[in-house]
Amino acid sequence: MATLDGDTFGGRASHDAEILRGDLNRILYELTVDGADGVEYLFGGSIASATETADGVEVTFDSGASRGFDLVVGADGLHSHTRALAFGPEERFIGDLGYYVSIYSVPNHLDLDRWELTCVSPLRTALTYSTAKDTGAKAMFLFASEPLEYDRHDVSRQKKLLAEAYADEAWEVPRLLAALDEAPDFYFDSLSQAYLDQWSKGRTALVGDSAYCASPASGQGTSLALFGAYVLADELAAADGDHVSGFAAYEREMRRFAEENQKLGPSNIKHMVMRTKRQISIQLTLLSLLGRLPGKERMMTKVMEPIQKAANSITLKDY
């Protein structure tokens, strides 16, 4: 066993802050939906087709309604439908890292209060954590696997695959898996990355995971998306309506930053899911000693240096 405080384990710098993605979504929505210049949100729909014209894009929604837009920006994730419409099939752009991830809400039966408990076995890791005592808890699973066959819209099949992957695991895993059917927010997917030679085509551009997914193992998905949205919006504004120039400038500013953060995924996952009992024993022994050693902060700073370097490898313009 090894125990570390959050700042040491996370390599957190003094100015770092963390926020749940759902809370971030709510904040951004509330900031942009109101007022004369508010954003129009259409929920529960998707783009069926997009046809570029001389001065815009004619979009037909799956409801059958059609509308014209100046530009289309796909911010719809690793399995981007917008990317498929504009650039081609997903398999051209997605690189599988050889692992799967699942996360969902569970009852806080361990009464955790800002604690994360992790059980590491060969080829699979299971953990549960709570950000505060009264917020419930999350269960998270990471496991190595050959490519699995399933429809990504078939949630029951995904739950079955997860249960099968951890069928003989002990610790708290059976209890966490027992909460599967009641989970309101079940997520399951491969750990994969997106690679495109260019992030725009005509009047369509991609941002975030649809363009440069670094995988959850990088820990940088939200940062990449927010930086990308900021740079794209401001470069379009700076180009004064010239989307060709704006899209090109966006890519120049973001390309190196995205590539640096994508390097983190394959590297990080090897420390999150280990292959052998020997690797696990060595790592946990080192971690258990680290918590008692003088100068542990210095050591963890060195360990976390590649992540900090990648996270700060862009200097944002003051547009």
Descriptive overview:
- This protein is an alpha+beta fold.
- The chain contains 12 helices and 11 strands.
- The strands form 3 sheets. The chain has a 5-stranded antiparallel β-sheet with strand order 6-7-8-5-9, sandwiched between helices.
- A hairpin with a 2-residue loop joins strand 6 and strand 7.
- Helix 7 runs antiparallel to helix 8.
- It is globular, with a radius of gyration of 21 Å.
- The model has no long low-confidence stretch (mean pLDDT 92).
Sum up the structure in keywords.
319 residues; alpha+beta; 3-stranded antiparallel β-sheet; 12 helices; 11 strands; 21% strand; globular
Strand arrangement within the widest β-sheet reads: 6-7-8-5-9
Radius of gyration, whole Å:
21 Å
The count of DSSP E runs of length 2 or more, i.e. the number of strands, is 11
Structural class: alpha+beta
Task: Note the run of SSEs as H and E.
Answer: HHEEEEHEEEEHHEEEHHHHHHH
The total of helices stands at 12
Helix content: 25-40%
- The dominant shape is globular
Residue windows where pLDDT falls under 50 for at least 5 positions: none
The oligomeric state is single chain
User: Whole-Å distance between the termini?
Assistant: 49 Å
Main pleated-sheet profile: 5 strands, antiparallel
Q: Return the average pLDDT rounded to an integer.
A: 92
How large a portion of the residues is in β-strands, by DSSP E?
15-25%
